[in-house]
Amino acid sequence: MAKKVVFSGIQPSGVLHIGNYLGAIQQWVEGQAKYDNIFCVVDLHAITVPQDPKELTDNIYRTAATYLAAGINPRQSIVFVQSQVPAHAELAWLLNTITTMGELSRMTQFKDKSQKGGSGRASVGLFDYPVLMAADILLYGTQAVPVGEDQTQHVELARDLAQRFNHRFGKTFPVPEVILRKSGARIMGLDDPTKKMSKSASPANYIALTDSSDVIRKKIMRAVTDSGSTIKFDPKRAGLHNLLTIYQLFSGQTEAQIERHFAGKGYGDLKRELADLVIGKLTPLQTKIEHYMKNKRLLDAILKSGAKRAARLAHPMLTEVKRKLGLAQ
Ligand code: ATP
Ligand code: LTN
C-alpha cells in the first residue's frame, strides 16, 4: 500500500521552543519512515504579522536548519521554503473564493492575535492565514497533518474546504486528518502551566532551542509547581504534569518507569534531573543547527532541491483545480 502523504510546517517567526520541538518536529522525525513527508518553512505565514526583513531571512534558515538537525533527512523527506513554490499562494487565492468571512471570523488564533494589535489593525493576511494553510495542505493531496493541538481548528477548516470543493466541483482533494501526539500535543508554559508554551509570552514561559545550559537550568528550577510532594502523572497538578511530560518525551521512558524512578524523591530532584536531560538533548541539537547555519551553501542547495520537488508535485493538482473551476487551462 502507498504511504500516506504528510505535510506540516512551522513559521520562521522568532525562536523555536521545546513546545514546537516536542509537539511538532519530534513527531515528524518519528513518523518519517512511515509516511511520504513534506516539511515546509512557512515564511508567507510569518509575514502576516510585521517582521524585520533581515531577521526573517535568518529565521528562515534557522528553522530549516532545525528540521535537519533534529533528524529530518532531505533525501527521504521534502524540505523547502513556502515562498519558493508560488503554487501555495495561487491555490490559496482559489480557495479564498469558497471560504466565508464567517468561517475565518471564528478562528480562535485570529481572534487572539488580532486582539493583541488592537481592533481593525490586523492585516488581511492574518485573517486569511487559515486559507493559506489549507492550500499548503491540499496542494499535495495530503492525508495527514502532524501538528500541536492549537492547530486543530485550522486543519478542520482545511477538511471543510476539501469537502466543499469536492462536493461542488467533483472529487479532487483527499480529506486530511490531524495527527496529534497522545502526550506532547500541548506543552504548557513554565511560568504559567494553565496556558500553552508560546514564543509570544515572556522568556520565563518557554525554553528556546537556542537557550544556553545556564538559562535552561534556571528556567526549569523556577518553573511553577504546586506544593505537593509525590511525583505522579496527575493532570490536575498542571505544573508537575507538564514537567513530567517534558521528561517523558525527552527520555523516551514510560510513565510507570518515570514514577518508579522518582519514588521517594522531591520536586527539586525532578527539576535538577530534568534540566540535565534537556541540556543533554539540546546541546547536540544546537551544535548541529550551527553547523548548518555556517554552511549556507549546503542549506540553500537542500532547500532549492526541495522546492523543485515540491513544485513538481504541486503542479498537477493546481492545474486540476483550475480546470475544475472552469479556468480554461
Ligand atoms: P507560538 O504560540 O509559540 O507563537 P505558534 O503555534 O503560533 O506558536 P508555530 O511556531 O508556527 O507557531 O508552531 C509550530 C508548531 O508547533 C505547530 O505544529 C504548533 O501546533 C506546535 N506548537 C506550538 N506551541 C506548542 C506547544 N506549546 N505544545 C505543543 N505544540 C506546540
Ligand atoms: N499554522 C501553523 C503553521 C502551518 C502549517 C501549515 C502546519 C502553516 N501551514 C500546514 C501544518 C500544515 C502553525 O503551526 N502556526
Automatic annotation (TrEMBL):
InterPro entries according to UniProt: aa-tRNA-synth_I_CS, aa-tRNA-synth_Ic, Rossmann-like_a/b/a_fold, Trp-tRNA-ligase, Trp-tRNA-ligase_bac-type, Trp-tRNA_synthetase
One Pfam assignment: tRNA-synt_1b
GO cellular component: cytosol
GO biological process, one term: tryptophanyl-tRNA aminoacylation
Enzyme Commission code(s) on record: 6.1.1.2
Ligand binding (L-tryptophan): 136
Motif extent ('KMSKS' region): 196-200
One MF annotation (Gene Ontology) recorded for this entry: tryptophan-tRNA ligase activity
UniProt similarity note: Belongs to the class-I aminoacyl-tRNA synthetase family.
Entry protein name: Tryptophan--tRNA ligase
Species this chain originates from: candidate division Kazan bacterium GW2011_GWB1_52_7
Gene symbol of the encoding locus: trpS
